Amino acid sequence: MKTITVSHISHGILETGGFRHEQFLLNAISENLKKENYQVNNKTIRARKSFIGFDHVKLLWFGFINAVYDINFVVARIALPAMIRNLFTNRKILIVLHYFDERDGKKQSLKWYYHLLFFFLQNSSSKNVSIIVPSVYWVRYFEEKLNKNIPILLFPNFFETNKYLAFNAAKKSNRIHLGQYSWKNDQRIFDLANELSVLGFDCYFSTMQKSEVGKFEHYDVVFEDHATYLQSMAESLYTVSFIKVNEGWNRVAHESILVGTTLIGNNAGGLGDLIKESGSLMANTVDEFVELIKSNTHSNCHKEFIEKYDVKNCDSFLNPITDFINS
């Protein structure tokens, strides 16, 4: 039996939806490889801090010294040093890219880094590098951006749907969940909160950071444990996803659908895929969001959507990744 080591190399303070997606992928691919008669060791290597300015050099070094395993799942900001480290090895580098958008406020040094990363990927002759993305939108985007030079593999977010469906019977209140309190939100979401507040709706954002909690003129920002967060969202009339960048997927939006709360979102990258595929509501301006909410318009989620993204159905998405690893 051959031994293989699979690593997940990342950085950050919070265990975001992206991090949970990467961890699920790490464990799922490890289990899949065991079925192919590998003895699998998996590792999570995470720099638990934020890297800003000159500190980015430290992050590059972190990626360089740690990408030494048979299979290396890496995030975008350490992908380039991981690839350089393995120019003359047979180790696999799988870059997990949840989204990419020039409008997300990158500093100049980070813009240069991404230009260099994509130039490398467009011109690399390596057969050991691929990108993993969470939605079809990003498969198409990166295939075009990289001239189909490397494989772009789809691995969506998966959920233990039964745990979410248990919240479906919640009694609705007059609340509107404005999604996660995040820099990704379109600034017009605050105008939307203002208008909804005037109409008598109670608006709130959820957050993963206690430092952001507060009561504001037209909305609250609340920190809750996961079960309470789901209960609050299930009791809400709507969840709003009003995003200024092209999203990867949007875990909060998906969770809202699973707990039985109608999603209204804008057509922003993978979020647009999610809305169309689930049969949710789409709006792209404040007026459109307000009109849907005032008219009490709701959607019926497609059952096929819920079933497709249940954890038990991830194997079909794993097979192309396993094939790449074995190639």
Helical fraction equals 40-55%
Low-pLDDT stretches: none
Question: How big is the Rg?
Answer: 21 Å
Number of strands: 13
Can you give keywords for this protein?
327 residues; alpha/beta; 7-stranded mixed β-sheet; 6-stranded parallel β-sheet; 13 helices; 13 strands; globular
What does this protein structure show overall?
The strands form two sheets. The protein has a seven-stranded mixed beta sheet, with helices on both faces. The protein has a six-stranded parallel beta sheet with strand order 2-1-3-4-5-6, sandwiched between helices. It has helices at residues 17-35, 55-66, 79-85, 108-123, 136-145, 161-165, 188-198, 226-235, 251-258, 270-278, 286-294, 303-308, 315-326; strands at 2-11, 38-47, 71-75, 92-96, 129-133, 152-154, 175-180, 202-207, 214-215, 220-223, 238-241, 262-265, 281-282. By secondary structure, it is of the alpha/beta class. Helix 10 links the parallel strand 12 (262-265) and strand 13. It is globular, with a radius of gyration of 21 Å. It contains 13 helices and 13 strands. The mean pLDDT is 95.
Short précis:
Helices cover 41% and strands 20% of the residues. It has 13 helices and 13 strands.
